[in-house]
Amino acid sequence: MRLLVHDSVSPVFAPALLVDYLTSEGVDATTDCHPTDADGVVAFAHDDALLDAPWVHAITAGYDDYPVEEYHEAGLTFTNSTGIHGTSVGESVVGHCLTFARRLHRYRDRQHDRQWEHEPYEAAFTLSGERACVVGLGTLGQGVAVRLDALGMDVVGVRRTPALVPGVSEVVTPDDLHDAVSDARFVVLTVPLTDETTGLVDAGVFATMREDAYLVNVARGEVVDQDALVTALESGAIAGAALDALDPEPLPAESPLWGFEEVLITPHCAALTNDYHEAVGDLVVTNARRIGRGADPVNRVV
């Protein structure tokens, strides 16, 4: 089986790393052929040339930027990389929560000005005993939940099917979202972008959240009504936000979100780690072997 590693956009890692890893695992991989000349394509993003491929694998878990219906109509197999980001994104969320609680961002800001100054006595707190609401309990949300639980937080979750998962004390359906966020110090978004989740976190949600609560978005920017978020921050309806996913990306320089002391902005990098290409490669190798023997691939979307 020959695979094309297709870097149609600026990649999150060098395509050559993935080619070398796949080659070391016995897969014939290249960056230099047309999709029609390969048995499958590992894609960093969609472009229309992929419609001629028999199999496309997205390096990301989210696939809202891929024309799934067109793939289905074209008769190609489409798989994604869900399941590999729980550790990296979970640790990123822990980092955001600890930063706010221990006021690390404010000390880092002062370091640039060489200021030796404490935060106000009432500002710092510990995560232990605080409640976190994780909205979305797929593999990503579960990776977040178990790590927050390990820090002594009371973790509640929101998902369509209210079944308990490790690290979560209570699960409710999206119909009870307002109740779920109303007593949470941190509201963490890990849902995929769908018609149902677009604009899910709106002015009504912010009005329900505690004034000392923080929003953490490691999902997609469109899940949050950003105008409502700015209003909530300006009015003090919530304490702050950590935003790894924004709309649009990159965030324009004129966005007011850059100016808030209690907002952490990262460039959609919560999942990135120096062995990302290996995790993707392991999935691709597994699916290449399964497809090669006529079995259904894992993480099949269509």
Automatic annotation (TrEMBL):
Q: Which InterPro entries has this protein been placed in?
A: D-isomer_DH_CS (IPR029753), D-isomer_DH_NAD-bd (IPR006140), Dhydh_Halo (IPR054891), NAD(P)-bd_dom_sf (IPR036291)
CDD domains in alphabetical order: 2-Hacid_dh_1
An MF annotation (GO) of this entry? NAD binding
Sorted UniProt keywords:
NAD, Oxidoreductase
Q: SUPFAM superfamilies recorded for this chain? A: Formate/glycerate dehydrogenase catalytic domain-like, NAD(P)-binding Rossmann-fold domains
Domain named D-isomer specific 2-hydroxyacid dehydrogenase NAD-binding: residues: 95-270
Quote the protein name from its UniProt record. D-2-hydroxyacid dehydrogenase
Annotated source species: Halomarina oriensis
